[in-house]
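[Q] Does anyone have a clean structure-token version of this?
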Amino acid sequence: MADLSQYKRIMIADDDDIYNYITSRMLELKAKCERIDKKMSGFTALKHLERVSGEGNYPDLIILDMDMPIINGLDFLAKYEEDFYESHPKTKIIVVSAMSENKAKSKALEYPFVAGFLPKPLVFEDLTQTLTE
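[A] Here you go.
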């Protein structure tokens, strides 16, 4: 099994409580992360990043749902590039989606900090393979 120990702090941004719970439990059991923050929208995820940006609790990995209300995945990525990428260039983002949205997938993968686009539900082995490629 691939090692994800370099990703100590992970944030999941998804509007599905059950998905957040299952994904966070999978990461707690299989990855050696110290902290998992769950946010229910792109808006609350961006507010969280503003709050932790200077604290040393900034996530090393963000798992981002493409389809969320208020601020969707593509809007989040644009705002992330504008406000956070320069000061946190090592943070990786994995975009996830229940649908195969080819246009949205292509657009998301244009961002240099997006490490991959994976289908939901997230499979740990797919995550590790994408992050180690």
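[Q] Thanks! Anything notable?
[A] The CA atoms of residues 23 and 122 lie 7 Å apart.
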